[in-house]
Amino acid sequence: MDERTRAYVVLVFMPLFFSSTLIIGRAAVPVIEPWTLAYWRWMLASVILFPFAVGAILRSSDILIGNWRLIAFLSLLLIVICGGGVFVALRYTTATNATLIYTMSPIFILIIETLFRGHRPSLRQVGGILLAFLGVAVIVLRGDIDRLLAFRFNPGDIIILFASVCFAVYSTLLRSNGLTKVPTHALFAIILLTGTALLVPLMLWEAVTHQAMPTRLDAWASIAGLAVFASVLPFLMYQYGIKIVGAPITATFIYLLPAYGVVLAVVFLGEAFKTYHAFGFVMIMTGIVAATAQFPRRRIAQTV
Question: How many domains does the chain have?
Fold first, then answer.
């Protein structure tokens, strides 16, 4: 198995861990203030990851120091806006709206790569991404067009849309200025530590104004679940995918999020599997294959 194929295998499982964010986050938001939840999530993730990354961080220190402004910006995008802002948004919007809007990230990535990086996507890539997005829409709207017609933006939707754009910018910048030379776990550990530091003022503000320090066992259990299953593992997978196959292809696998969510709901919650689920699955998988597969070119035999 070559490295590119290995990356595809990793990316297939990545959304399974990402999908736990909304499940655990929705359970945690009622008992933990959003910025406090974000701070302790990423702090614990940093504590878990840093011992494994410290050696690689020291070996890559020249590159990291030379790109400290970029790393700080990446931390702001991922940890503060995407990692904390989403919890704020979930207080105002539904999981359906959040899923549909956030999974627009691959489209934003394709636009950014095209406008600023000179990337020229093929019609097959564009069509695959759009087909996968339509598959997401079929699932989250439950195959009912009336749900789309009744769709209304609220403050939470605006935050999610902004976070989706920020995630696209983060994904694109991750391949900038030699950062690809830094081992994936080392770069992510530095982004975690920097982003956690940026969250301190917001966490302290909630501690003073809302007495937000978690005290309940279920609150800490949610934080631990978010740190391990929805933070360290999927983001390492995501950054590895970007390093090997690029941001547009890696982000396309985000469209598997609702598919995994449905499967988990059927297996663990006993929810029914509907026809629109099947249609959405087929559209998502077809779109991902179309956007990522490397089809061999036909050779035209020349005759003398």
Answer: 1
